[in-house]
Amino acid sequence: MRIGLVGVGRIGAFHAATLKGLPAVDQVVVADADANRAELVAKDLGIEFAPDVDALLASRLDGFVIAAATSAHADLLARGVAAGIPTFCEKPIAHDLADTQRVVELVEASDVPVHIGFQRRFDAGYQAAAAQVRSGELGFVHHIRANTNDAFPPPREYIPTSGGFFRDCTVHDFDIIRFVTGREVVSVYATGANRGEPFFGEYGDVDAAAALLTLDDSTFVSVSGTRYNAAGHDVRMEVLGSLGSVAVGLDEHTALRSAEAGVTFPGGEPHATFMDRFRPAYVAELTAFTEVVAGTREVPCTVRDALQAFRIADACELSRHENRVVSLEEIAR
Ligand SMILES: NC(=O)c1ccc[n+]([C@@H]2O[C@H](COP(=O)([O-])OP(=O)(O)OC[C@H]3O[C@@H](n4cnc5c(N)ncnc54)[C@H](O)[C@@H]3O)[C@@H](O)[C@H]2O)c1
């Protein structure tokens, strides 16, 4: 199959290289608003490039991958759907809820498959935890602890268009909580602080945050994250049940050291970035997209899933600003 990819920045160039290596993919062609960048990446990977998105979409694609900047997603998704091409789009769909809802309506009114890139759904650990919750072997789940800790903060210029900590960072936790439990969030209480460089606060954002979510079966979920975790990129989830408990992301590479004498686990090199932590998941995610393109698989993460995760993030922002519990019913569907 022939896959076109738009946006060859940090994640796009990585996805282009992954696509090139997939057995189901015969040709990869890339484009970018910066045509020189597309040409450079194409030369580097030994693949084709198109001078712009129009040329890319007109080049007989079987699948379309959007890895451009977030501000371009809604328009590019609309173009992929209008062209009738099965489309994969990196999270998030848009910067705000209204644009996200518009895209959801557009996609759901079409028969074009659209897969949104929440790669944790393809991580073996989260999949195993989901299977154990669903099989009942953990009993009833009473608490979940989820965290997303980045090793280093992004540059100042990233923050004003990031959507804020909950929409940019912990949105991955919000999606995977739904995936692992199969439950919906009914209310949130969230807070945050600017403990690092002051530019986060200058843009109304935080660099450390915490949220308590209550699920529709009364499971309590605490979500926390920071932009300053020099120990490493630390993404984990603990699922605590009446019959057993499991931890996702607890292995030799966990960015954590025991304070107990004589305990050497975890002893390996901690993950530095999300690329290290989720490399196999990104490959599995794009493999799944090729199956969507081939028509052999249902879309594994829909635009409505992305909308639900975004609504939880919006509820957390509102809760942080108003310092109160926010019901998900308050956030438009
Ligand atoms: N799922 C994940 O774990 C994950 C990780 C990183 C980034 N992302 C998402 O991927 C997207 C890209 O992030 P990044 O860090 O690679 O950004 P980046 O800034 O490194 O790259 C973005 C690229 O998009 C291009 N671009 C911007 N507007 C365009 C347009 N209208 N048409 C064509 N090309 C355009 C830019 O020239 C640039 O090359 C963001 O939406 C981000 O949220 C997801």
Structural features, described:
GO terms for molecular function: nucleotide binding; oxidoreductase activity. Residues 1-118 form the Gfo/Idh/MocA-like oxidoreductase N-terminal domain. A 7-stranded mixed β-sheet has the order 12-11-7-10-9-8-13. A 6-stranded parallel β-sheet has the order 3-2-1-4-5-6, sandwiched between helices. The chain has 2 domains: 2-112, NAD(P)-binding Rossmann-like Domain (Rossmann fold); 121-273 and 308-330, Dihydrodipicolinate Reductase, domain 2 (2-Layer Sandwich), CATH 3.30.360.10. The longest helix has 21 residues, at 274-294. It is an alpha/beta fold. Strand 9 (208-215) and strand 10 (220-226) form a beta hairpin. 36% of the residues lie in helices and 21% in strands. Helix 4 (73-82) packs parallel to helix 5, helix 6 packs parallel to helix 8 (171-181) and helix 8 (171-181) packs across helix 11 (303-322). It is globular, with a radius of gyration of 20 Å. It has helices at residues 10-20, 35-45, 53-57, 73-82, 97-108, 124-135, 165-168, 171-181, 199-202, 274-294, 303-322; strands at residues 2-6, 27-31, 48-49, 63-66, 87-90, 114-117, 141-149, 185-193, 208-215, 220-226, 234-241, 245-248, 326-327. The site of nicotinamide-adenine-dinucleotide (NAD) has 22 residues, from helix 1.
Mean pLDDT: 97
User: At the fourth CATH level, what is the homologous superfamily of the largest domain?
Assistant: Dihydrodipicolinate Reductase, domain 2
How big a fraction of the residues is strand? 15-25%
Annotated CATH architecture of the largest domain = 2-Layer Sandwich
Structural class: alpha/beta
- Main β-sheet, in a few words? 7 strands, mixed
Determine the fraction of residues in helical runs and give it as a percent range.
25-40%
Q: What is the count of structural domains?
A: 2
Q: What is the third-level CATH name, the topology of the largest domain?
A: Dihydrodipicolinate Reductase, domain 2
Q: What is the CATH domain class of the largest domain?
A: Alpha Beta
Spatial sequence of strands, sheet with the most strands: 12-11-7-10-9-8-13
Low-confidence stretches: none
Q: What overall form do the CA principal axes indicate? A: globular
Q: What ligand species are in this complex?
A: nicotinamide-adenine-dinucleotide
| Tally of DSSP β-strands | 13
What's the order of the H and E elements? EHEHEHEHEHEHEHHEHEEEEHHE
In whole angstroms, how far apart are the ends? 36 Å
Please give the count of helices: 11
Radius of gyration over all CA atoms, rounded: 20 Å
GO molecular function: nucleotide binding; oxidoreductase activity
InterPro entries: Gfo/Idh/MocA-like_OxRdtase_N, GFO_IDH_MocA-like_dom, NAD(P)-bd_dom_sf
Organism: Kribbella amoyensis
Domain GFO/IDH/MocA-like oxidoreductase: 126-246
